[in-house]
């Protein structure tokens, strides 16, 4: 089952409660603390382009990267009226290659968790380091292992007049992977079309991700609670990382 295949056209309707501006705002608050004013940014795993659009509207030159062609199609359509059009790139993050380095890389909404092999995640972070200009910064968030473990056995429902989605969570302690089995019903005229997708996330720990960042060459690594400048608290559901690429002397 192709994750984000059938879901792409309904993704925004099912996630209309996500405050993308707050994600971009927190990234910009980090930039302010770091004394940085980047001009170019890579929006990694951009999805349907909600954050991409906000970044472009705020004056950044944006390269948007995603593995899903369907999500990229939605993102291109969403950004088609912008005066400063982003560049869209169809790539998996472990194969990331940008023709020009950028000042900032962001990866929002636990997208790194979708890389199920830790070696591939380490490679994605290494390639992000290579894609940054000297002095550049990488900002991303992930779901915590506590959150993903708590999804085990849970059933969730999202719906509106034209979309009905039921998904079930299952956490495997042996593989450290949370699987979301999804049944999606989408109205197409007078009929409803049913599709199924499977989404999986790996429960990365803070030491794991910090190790990947250090091995890639990142420095000045900090970990925050969700959109707060404090250390993660017990039971935190989402955490943020900031890391810098050292300047060439």
How does this model look, in words?
A hairpin with a 2-residue loop joins strand 8 and strand 9 (191-202). The model has no long low-confidence stretch (mean pLDDT 92). The protein has seven helices and eleven strands. It has helices at 11-14, 20-34, 50-57, 69-78, 118-131, 145-150, 206-216; strands spanning 40-44, 61-66, 87-90, 102-107, 132-143, 155-159, 163-172, 177-188, 191-202, 218-224, 238-245. It is globular. The chain has 249 residues and is an alpha/beta fold. It has a seven-stranded mixed β-sheet with strand order 3-2-1-4-5-11-10, with helices on both faces. Strands 6-7-8-9 form a four-stranded antiparallel β-sheet. The protein has two domains: 6-143 and 204-245, Rossmann fold; 147-201, S-adenosyl-L-methionine-dependent methyltransferases (N-terminal domain of TfIIb, Single Sheet).
CATH level 1 class label of the largest domain: Alpha Beta
Number of strands: 11
Strand content: 25-35%
Give the CA-CA distance, first to last residue: 48 Å
Structural class: alpha/beta
Report the sheet with the most strands, covering strand number, pairing sense and barrel closure: 7 strands, mixed
In the predicted model, the low-confidence regions spanning at least 5 consecutive residues are none
Question: Which keywords apply here?
Answer:
alpha/beta; Rossmann fold; N-terminal domain of TfIIb; seven-stranded mixed β-sheet; 7 helices
